[in-house]
Amino acid sequence: MSFNKYVTKYSPITFDDNRGYLKVISEDNDLGVSYKESFSKKGVFRGMHIQNPPYKQVKHIKVLSGSIIDYVIVLDKKSDDFGKTFSTKISASNDTYCIPSFCAHGFKAIEDTVLRYICIGKYSEDHEVCIKQKPDKISDLIVSKKDENGIPLDECLEFFYKIRWE
Questions:
Q1: What is the CATH number of the domain that holds 148?
Q2: Residue 1 falls inside a structural domain
């Protein structure tokens, strides 16, 4: 018998750019679980991303170092908060936050920050929506082309109103 017969080894895949990095530590498409880490320089805004059914994802996030302003947009038509954006400051701690599948998610790094993600649900580029929704009254953000070219929230709401999240 061999150890490698039963245990799978993953080698991280890292995507670097001027904002920092995104590291896919491991991804199991059979189980629909991925484990990721990002480093974001102060002033980087990442988001707002969501995946549509049948490839919806729940995200568990934990700030390992630094601090962020975390943002969610509620996109469940059953909620009284449909289409609203909420935010909170999160600093490094032992706490983990669970972002439901019906919320678009993004964050702004207040300082250099390392963030851990555990995503439950298979990733599908074809089912991902990038919403162009930067935080109000914040300028000089470092934003990716993908996020800059996202669909404005007001143009997405009718589409999301038709989605069933259950």
A1: 2.60.120.10
A2: no
Inside any domain, residue 55: yes
* Residue 136, pLDDT above cutoff 90: no
Domain of 29 in residue numbering reads as 11-161
Q: Which helix (H) or strand (E) holds 157?
A: helix 153-161
Asked if residues 84 and 5 have their Cβ atoms less than 8 Å apart, the reply is no
Could you tell me the sign of the dihedral formed by the alpha carbons of 124, 125, 131, 134, in that order? Answer: positive
Q: Using the structure block, give the residue that is written with the tokens 């320089």.
A: 41
% of the chain surpassing 90 pLDDT: 77
Structure tokens at 22: 């995104």
Residue 135: half-sphere exposure toward Cβ, Cα within 13 Å? 27
